[in-house]
Amino acid sequence: MELFRDAARGCQSHSPLNATLLRAAADDLAAGGVTTKVMAGSELDRGGTVPGLRFAGSVHRLVLEGKAPGLARHYPTVGGHLERDRLWADAEPVLAEHADKLRAMIRANVVQTNEPARSAALYGGLLVAAERAAKHSGRARPLPVRLLEIGASGGLNLRPHLFGYRLDDGTSFGDNASPVQLDLAWTGRPRANLAIPLIVADRAACDMNPVDVTTEDGRRHLSSFVWPDQVSRYRRLQGAIDLAQDDPVPVHRAEGSEWLRDQLAKSATDMVTVVWHSVVWQYAPPRERARGRAVLAAAAAKATKDAPLALLVFEPRRGNDPADPYRFDLLLRLWPAGISLHLGTGVGHGDPFTWDERHWI
Ligand SMILES: C[S@@+](CC[C@H](N)C(=O)[O-])C[C@H]1O[C@@H](n2cnc3c(N)ncnc32)[C@H](O)[C@@H]1O
């Protein structure tokens, strides 16, 4: 019950709908109502598994599947509008009718997101890597990229070159006919030529829990965890999934370090191999992180001017502001050039983003 109240507080500023639903469900749990039946078997789950968000996501999924027409009127992702005073009265019968299905979903699911907006930071970082690697090998044009993503979820960020990007000064880059158009709030710019298109020559990805977005189940799974009030985010996700269906790239079920060792054993010349991960490393246990570092160090030692290697990460780091303790830094290392850069800082979903290139130790 406390975990539901915690989740409600976490949703408060960005999802009034989830916050209202979770507070009412917490009261219902305390009173032994229908939510008790829905959450049976998950009562002892750790806070880190966020049972409240698994509950809210599963209810959202029923709405997206058209199985809760009386409740859909509150959900902006299906054209509804929240009426706080009526939400619980409309939710309770849905919980009662679908208690068994909801219980099974909540027990089976992990909260999983895949945020396409992180591709904007990725795009800028890849351009910097491609230009610097080319310069180090004496080439005039940026090198093509071989992108290796760890923790790719549904793999929606494997197509940064197929998205369109628009800046508030009227500049645009990427594909302006793409179903994913990102309107970016950038301060500063990456130190790379945005007018030269990014070339992604090869891509591969892994995840411990991959989502196959070419299936309806995969689409629904990722869609259900977008907070229902965040319509533009929801639409962006649908566009990125549509694109993935036309340009499928498998996400292999594997732990990052092991998969990376196998990938890096295959050499790729005349392109820069970029190992990328965003909002993943916090979930990996220390032993896995150490293995990942060792695999990368071994490959870095073998990198050459014609087959350079880069690590590009967008991960949370603890900052000094107590009101906002985590910031998301975009960091780049490049071998054999020996370059190590902090490229910028953004919010968790990738935008707004501030480009601020400096040396990183
Ligand atoms: C918060 S999601 C981020 C997904 C994606 N990188 C993005 O930015 O949208 C974290 C993902 O990392 C995966 N993951 C966590 N630890 C992993 C590991 N050691 N190896 C591979 N994937 C991992 C999870 O399964 C999950 O899909």
Provide an overview of this structure.
This is DUF2332 domain-containing protein. It comes from Allokutzneria oryzae. The chain is of the alpha/beta class and 361 residues long. It has 2 domains: 2-108, no CATH class; 118-359, no CATH class. The chain has 12 helices and 12 strands. The chain starts with a helix and ends with a strand. The structure holds S-adenosylmethionine. The site of S-adenosylmethionine (SAM) has 22 residues, from strand 6.
Instruction: Show unreliable segments.
Output: none
- What is the distance, rounded to the nearest whole angstrom, between the alpha carbons of the first and last residues? 44 Å
Would you count the extended β strands for me?
12
Bound molecules: S-adenosylmethionine
Briefly note the structural class of the backbone. Answer: alpha/beta
Rg (CA only) = 22 Å
Largest sheet features: 9 strands, mixed
Helix count equals 12
Fraction of residues in β-strands: 15-25%
* Mean pLDDT over the residues: 95
Task: Return the domain count.
Answer: 2
Which geometry do the CA atoms define?
Answer: elongated
Give the helices and strands as they follow along the chain. HHHHHHHHEEEEEEHHEHEHEEEE
Residues in helices, as a percent range: 25-40%
Pfam families: DUF2332
Organism: Allokutzneria oryzae
InterPro entries: UCP012608 (IPR011200)
Protein name: DUF2332 domain-containing protein
